[in-house]
Design brief:
Length: 207
């Protein structure tokens, strides 16, 4: 599960999803757009449009899927609820992984029911070149004893582990920087898939 606002989806998200799929030998990567992210301002572009852009970005990429369960659900988009519904579908023995970038990981202890995240899934943290900071105390406490050293060790159990991954291609691309570029009329070519660029320019999104 790779959740996010995807406001808009960019090459950093998509390339990371593929490299996660390969590094962890995943059957599927569920990319889950948040309808109402609990810890940040509600995006200016509605969830349906963000999901359309995500689908355009993924196109026919094997193993990557738009999962719209947070859009269909009422209330704040809590990851525990999303993981619980995936767990119910996949059963107690499936290995379930929640992947997130280092910037999002830094705030994990402030999420809704953070301990429960680890009961439902493993957490895999992806390095981002533009983010490096020491961990807050509450996060140190949350992750105590959960670190595992390898993918093999992680995949011995269905949930509960923490693994840091440095994926082969690290990209300093953020949706914030893309929105800023669009607002001042600068080019976003090659920062996101061409179909996504065409979609958002045609609708004057973020301008
Ligand atoms: P924003 O700039 O609006 O915060 P973002 O680019 O960080 O957006 P999100 O939709 O918030 O994108 O990110 C969804 C998930 O993807 C988060 O876990 C985030 O850390 C991760 N992510 C985003 N960009 C990258 C990137 N370039 N490389 C690796 N992971 C990324």
């Amino acid at each position: 599960m790779l959740g996010g606002t995807f406001d808009p989806v960019h090459i950093g998200h998509l390339r990371s999803a593929i490299e996660l799929r390969d590094a962890l030998v995943l059957d599927r990567v569920h990319m889950v757009p948040a309808r109402m992210p609990p810890h940040r301002a509600t995006p200016g572009v509605d969830a349906e449009q963000r999901a359309i852009m995500l689908a355009l970005g993924i196109a026919d990429t094997p193993g990557l899927y738009v999962d719209d369960r947070e859009i269909r659900r009422e209330g704040p988009s809590y990851s525990t609820a999303t993981l619980a519904s995936l767990r119910e579908e996949l059963g107690p023995h499936a290995r379930l992984v929640m992947a997130l970038g280092y910037d999002a990981y830094l705030h994990l202890a402030d999420w809704h029911e953070p301990q429960r995240l680890f009961e439902l899934a493993h957490v895999v943290v992806v390095d981002r070149p533009d983010h490096r900071q020491p961990l807050p105390m509450a996060l140190e406490t949350l992750i105590a004893g959960r670190d595992v050293a390898s993918v093999d060790a992680l995949m011995q159990s269905p949930a509960g582990g923490l693994l840091h991954l440095s994926l082969p291609t690290r990209m300093a691309i953020s949706a914030t920087a893309i929105r800023e570029r669009l607002q001042r009329g600068a080019s976003v070519r090659y920062l996101l898939p061409e179909a996504v660029e065409r979609y958002l320019l045609a609708r004057r999104l973020y301008q």
